[in-house]
Design a protein that fits this description.
This protein is an alpha/beta fold. It has a single domain, classed as 3-Layer(aba) Sandwich (Glutaredoxin). 30% of the residues lie in helices and 22% in strands. The protein contains five helices and seven strands. It has a seven-stranded mixed β-sheet. The two termini are 26 Å apart.
Length: 154
């Protein structure tokens, strides 16, 4: 399955946060851009590194008007413990049935979650979609080009 493409309408996400709150992506439409960070599992080395890097860039991410959210299939208690252990100051969302991962093309053929990052604009369109764990600098540069109407291959 391929990642959802830049310019596409972002599928709505309805999930529970690690703090037990209800989350709907559509509630952010018109108010803020959202960065969705899909990762396989709490407390694994690659995922820990990926989310700590988001935390390290959090001031810059939020300063750019983007609110990050991590997503994995782990439960709310695991997310809470993970945030507490690594002092993550952004929400992790429970994608227990992997519906969000499937909708964004971030579901591997074996059923695991594909490490990937998406940015959804205030208009509900995908501004950035990339497999892996790109740095905030890479993400912000690509988003800036899309918002400025620069061709993606420029």
């Amino acid at each position: 399955m391929a990642l959802i493409e830049v310019g596409a309408d972002a599928p709505d996400i309805h999930a529970t946060t690690g703090s037990g709150e209800d989350f709907r992506l559509s509630e952010h439409t018109g108010s803020s851009r959202v960065m969705l960070v899909f990762y396989p599992k709490d407390f694994t080395s690659g995922c820990t590194t990926q989310l700590i890097n988001v935390q390290r860039s959090l001031a810059d991410i939020r300063g750019a008007g983007v609110e990050p959210f991590g997503l994995s299939a782990d439960d709310a208690e695991s997310h809470k413990q993970f945030c507490d252990a690594y002092e993550l100051e952004f929400e992790l969302l429970v994608d227990d049935h992997k519906e969000a991962a499937r909708a964004y093309g971030a579901l591997k053929p074996d059923g695991g979650i594909l490490r990937s990052v998406f940015v959804v604009g205030q208009d509900g369109k995908i501004l950035f979609a990339q497999e892996g764990a790109p740095s905030w600098q890479e993400v912000s540069e690509a988003v800036r080009k899309v918002e400025d109407g620069v061709p993606l291959d420029a």
